């Protein structure tokens, strides 16, 4: 790739989340709990050209790896994403996200009376369906607005 094509600088150590569904980068940041105050060094590319996807988003987080729970939720909004672990400028590990059977944490149940949203030490848990997710505790189903359930607390 020539210098003219490089839009977002390479990173030395950290995680590159590539091939994110165009338009989902800000939701990916929310899943990772990254906001103006979080202190992480982060680069974001939105709707950059991609051979494979036509157009894609890309997020690079320096000095940090992702938890499996974060990757699981990420797969729901960016099913074609690739997770690249970078060390000393080299990609040392690369894998596609996989749709999990359940997701734990990160999302909150929209049911205000669900045990996971009451003042109890119960972590959220959803079964992953073909077309949405279902709270394991109260059976509430979320279909279209999964990104709206990202926990911003
Ligand atoms: N990357 C980075 N910093 C590095 C190394 C790689 O930001 N030090 C980024 C690249 O810009 C690319 C992604 O990590 O967006 C994956 O890098 P690489 O595997 O080298 O690129 P490709 O072979 O194009 O990846 P793929 O086949 O997954 O599209
Ligand atoms: Zn619930």
TrEMBL record:
GO terms for cellular component: aspartate carbamoyltransferase complex. Keywords: Metal-binding, Pyrimidine biosynthesis, Transferase, Zinc. Binds 1 zinc ion per subunit. It comes from the Archaea. The keyword Metal-binding applies. One of its GO terms (molecular function) is transferase activity. InterPro entries: Asp_carbamoyltransf_reg_N, Asp_carbamoylTrfase_reg, Asp_carbamoyltrfase_reg_C, Asp_carbatrfase_reg_C_sf, Asp_carbatrfase_reg_N_sf. HAMAP family: Asp_carb_tr_reg. Belongs to the PyrI family. PANTHER family: ASPARTATE CARBAMOYLTRANSFERASE REGULATORY CHAIN. This is Aspartate carbamoyltransferase regulatory chain.
């Amino acid at each position: 790739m020539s210098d003219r094509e490089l839009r977002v600088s390479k990173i030395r150590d950290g995680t590159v989340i590539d091939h994110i569904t165009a338009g989902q980068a800000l939701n990916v940041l929310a899943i990772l709990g990254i906001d103006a105050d979080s202190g992480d060094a982060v680069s974001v590319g939105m709707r950059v050209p991609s051979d494979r996807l036509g157009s894609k988003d890309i997020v690079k987080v320096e000095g940090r790896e992702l938890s499996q729970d974060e990757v699981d939720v990420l797969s729901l909004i960016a099913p074609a994403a690739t997770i690249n672990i970078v060390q000393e400028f080299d990609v040392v590990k690369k894998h596609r996200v996989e749709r999990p059977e359940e997701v734990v944490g990160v999302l909150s149940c929209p049911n205000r009376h669900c045990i996971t949203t009451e003042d109890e030490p119960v972590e959220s848990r959803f079964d992953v369906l073909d077309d949405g997710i279902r709270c394991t505790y109260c059976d509430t189903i979320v279909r279209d607005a999964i990104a709206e359930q990202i926990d911003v607390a």
